Amino acid sequence: MQQQQKLIFEKSVSGRRCTQLPACDIENKTALPQDLLREEAPLLPEIAEVDLVRHYMALSRKAHGVDNGFYPLGSCTMKYNPRLNEEVAAMPGFTDIHPLQPTASVQGALKVMQLLQQYLAEITGMDAVTLQPAAGAQGEWTGLLLIKAYHEAHGEQNRTKILIPDSAHGTNPASAAMCGFQVVHVPCTEDGFVDVAALRSLAGPDTAGLMLTNPNTLGLFEKDSLEMADIIHKAGGLLYYDGANLNAIMGIARPGDLGFDVCHLNLHKTFSTPHGGGGPGSGPVGCKKALSPYLPNPIVEDENGQLTLNFDNPNSIGQVKAFYGNFLVYLKAFTYILSSGADGLKQASQGAVLNANYMLYQLKEIFHLNNTFPCMHEFVLSMEDLKEETGVSAMDVAKALLDYGIHPPTMYFPLIVPEALMVEPTETENKETLDFAIETFRKIKEEAFADSAKLHQYPLQTPVRRLDEVQAARKPILKYQKSENQ
User: Fold this and answer.
1) Do the domain assignments include residue 346?
2) What average pLDDT does the segment 320-333 reach?
3) Peptide bond into 173 cis (omega under 30)
4) N or C, where is the chain less crowded by C-beta within 10 Å?
5) What CA–CA distances, in Å, run from 483 to 9, 43, 477, 480?
6) What is the CATH number of the domain that holds 200?
């Protein structure tokens, strides 16, 4: 059992310091107004430098990330990020610039943005790209605003409905609602694909578009994608591609060639830039020519051999992010694309699909699968049978994985699979790691039948064991509470 680590405030000793500031040599001639002054000094920890360093080093060792263990978080693509990307993004020529500098002094940065726009357009089969959105969900929102602007410009304000399959990415309905659309759910068939007949019956003159995640969140490629595109286009709607799962088809198939009119990408997933605790993210949006007049301002353009930022597009939906987006994330994705090349990007997708299918076919002998189809880059296990037979839930299995040094898969998603665990091994894991994970799943199942009570207690070796997750969500403690003797 690991020893509970003290908070930084609990290590504080009055009068102890980790730095010495020189005496101020500027006379203070302007006193602050009395009503702005604190009644007492702020509560700050007083600690020596060596203890401060050790404290945060200890915290870092307790954090689980893709750099120190297997992280098969389904739908999130927590792949290993090459250090070359970080080195490029840390170059002073990129980190020391300011977003308000004259464009003549940042031509190199603008060139990166211009080339990245071009590369992403080519990879997705789109005609134009904006880099602005800060994450996938904001990319969804931006793409839907483009669809809305397109219909309004064509006098079709009656198109108020967005069709979204049950197997869609989780943020799709929220993004559509935020844009003022009515969300219409499209059911899936028993084998996990969109019910095309149901889609056909739902599409009509009030349809603004269809949001489709392909591969879907069951890890299946929607084989009827072209037929669905034909249905929506004939109804006068547009197709939105959720690019969260592009890591399965990058370099193999392009959304633009599958009939999609607009898409977003997750640079912090598919294009190897850290996200989650290592963020920030980036969710560029690409679109076909008909939608390009509505892209957010500004767009990088070439004007007489000089790169500029054009803020003057009168049809633009407006800016969706301060300045130009998360620039250093662009650099990491740009480096990944250049270092991988077209063949490397394709191999990344092939490796992701191969690894996922290897795990799937090993685990299907151990756990119940929601389908028998080959998967793409991820797959979904159901712990429903295990729970009925032993009382051990998907949550119990996930907690047990922590003690083996494996980050749990995505739990209880998608909602259409009971007791779901959604596994995405990514292309950067080797066979030995996959075999270790498969054997770990096998051990946990054996233990569930041998001693199910113990499974309810996991994890046993982590710094913090089972929390009251309902209370943590409803009544989180977000700041340190000063005790009476401090």
Assistant:
1) yes
2) 93
3) no
4) N
5) 10, 11, 15, 9
6) 3.40.640.10
Same domain for 261 and 127: yes
Q: How far apart are CA 156 and CA 151, in angstroms?
A: 5
User: Look-up: residue for tokens 């410009």?
Assistant: 153
**Domain boundary residue, one of 281, 309, 339:** 339
Backbone angles phi, psi at 309, to 5 degrees: -110, 115
Q: How far apart are CA 220 and CA 290, in angstroms?
A: 30
Tally of domains within the chain:
2
Residue among 284, 329, 326, 268 at smallest CA distance from 129: 284
Decide: 266 and 327 in contact? Cβ < 8 Å.
Answer: no
Taking the complete model, does pTM exceed 0.85, yes or no?
yes
Is residue 246 one of the residues assigned to a domain? Answer: yes
Phi-psi region of 352 (alpha: psi -120 to 50; beta: other; left: phi over 0): alpha
What are 295-326's pLDDT values in tens digits? 999 989 898 889 999 888 899 999 999 889 99
**Residue 206 in domain:** yes
Owning domain of residue 448: 341-462
Whether residues 301 and 400 fall in one domain: no
72: cis peptide before it, omega within 30°? no
